[in-house]
Design a protein that fits this description.
Layout lengths: L1 H32 L5 H27 L1 H5 L7 H29 L4 H21 L3 H4 L1
Helix pairs in contact: 1-2, 1-5, 2-4, 4-5
């Protein structure tokens, strides 16, 4: 089960990152071109939200089910263990919180430019945080 969850978490990450990147690029294009915020734009952002939340849930299950997750918890002296046991989960929870805040804030806005700007800022910050804490040496 542990191996399956690792593979699922790693594989789903590609999809989640792609959806998030598409949502950020879509928001930037919409902001710069001054176009109207449509149902298509909402769906793109929603799929990115769903993809990142699914990735978070898979990661949390993996973290608490995996024997490695429990064994490496709090290992501050080793940089690789610190990344996977503390930095990666913590920063990604913060990133997905920002993405969720961006989704929630856009629902209260009426102006298309403000919606695109909200997605560009919050989803963009989330994407940068996620990219900063991917354990690249384990991924490739």
């Amino acid at each position: 089960m542990d191996h399956f969850l690792k593979e699922l978490h790693s594989g789903w990450a590609y999809l989640a990152l792609l959806l998030l990147l598409v949502a950020v690029v879509n928001a930037l294009i919409g902001l710069n071109s001054k176009k109207e915020f449509t149902a298509k734009d909402r769906k793109i952002s929603l799929f990115a939200l769903i993809g990142t939340h699914t990735q978070l849930l898979i990661g949390l299950v993996l973290y608490f089910v995996s024997p490695l997750g429990k064994a490496t918890f709090g290992q501050m002296s080793n940089a690789e263990l610190r990344l996977t046991s503390l930095e990666h989960p913590l920063i990604n929870i913060i990133a997905i919180t920002l993405i969720t805040i961006g989704w929630s804030k856009h629902k209260k806005l009426i102006n298309s430019e403000a919606k695109f700007k909200t997605f560009a800022i919050f989803y963009g910050l989330g994407l940068l945080l996620i990219l900063s804490r991917i354990p690249w040496n384990l991924w490739f």
